[in-house]
Amino acid sequence: MKSSYLFANKLRIHYLRWDTEEERRPVVMLHGLASNARIWELVGPVLAELGWSAIAPDVRGHGLTDKPDGDYGFETYRKDLLAVIDALNLDKPLLVGHSWGALIALDYAAQFPLGPRAPAGLILVDGGVMQLDDVPGTTWEETRERLTPPRLGGMPAGDFLRRITAWTSQWGSDERIPQIVLGNFEIAEDETIWPRLTFERHMQIVRAMWEFKTYDLIGRLRCPAMAVLAVPPQPRSERDEQFLELKERGVERARAVLPGLQVHWMQDSVHDIPLQYPAKLAELIAVFASQVG
């Protein structure tokens, strides 16, 4: 794994890269809201073993990338992504996005359907097929309350790691997972954690997600697309059931405007598929990448 920086769109952008000697189409992987590029740390090596070069940037305001003031809407992230693709000279990459990162990837693919910087294909990982206002009777106020992040700033890093370890231990024995999640935070001198994405910017992005018109953009796609969606294990909480219903309804609406959309339901999985089932996800990406050339 290579960790490096590039300067693009007036931004110092950190990215991870897994290279292969195979001359194949590159895969660009985008993390979700308040996450970081390390969420792909278990997927990238498997992709490289399968012969695909993979790049995972920390997007604006996240990870080790710059965190300037200003707009954090989708147009800004689209310009950042284009600048990264230009700077690395990636010809028709395959775009993979997780959660909110799937929306960034979808927005980019819809806005750049043609040309050398257009994606050859699009993979949406537990995101990108839903629209937040698609739930009957939902409001921005209810959505804002539901998506407001917990205030974890100031928690001792040791306490946070113990919580994360207990939560992820059921996925397997990979000891890297808690450290990957810890990468979402800075650790102060007193060993307390502080989110790398500020609360104000987080909520600015949530508002942009509320206004995002998923189905309009899916209808504008000109590249093959696949959705990889989590199906939580039983018994499910009421919130898990609602989220699953939203995804099922989203798939139905997405297929109405994009009949060729491939859908893979990842059984007994949580939202963070790249951490829980990295090898399975990498294999799905590799097969899809082969299909699009």
Which of globular, elongated, flat, extended, rod-shaped describes the shape? globular
Query: In angstroms, what separates the terminal alpha carbons?
Result: 24 Å
Listing every helix as H and every strand as E from the N terminus to the C terminus, the arrangement reads: EEEHEHEHEHHHEEHHEHEHH
Bin the strand percentage.
Answer: 15-25%
Instruction: Please tell me the CATH architecture by its name.
Output: 3-Layer(aba) Sandwich
Helix content: 25-40%
Q: Whole-number radius of gyration? A: 18 Å
Mean pLDDT over the full residue set? 95
Uncertain stretches of 5 or more adjacent residues: none
Strands of the largest sheet, in order across it? Answer: 1-2-4-3-5-6-9-10
Indicate how many domains the architecture comprises. Answer: 1
State the fourth-level CATH superfamily. Answer: Alpha/Beta hydrolase fold, catalytic domain
Structural class by SSE content: alpha/beta
- How many β-strand runs? 10
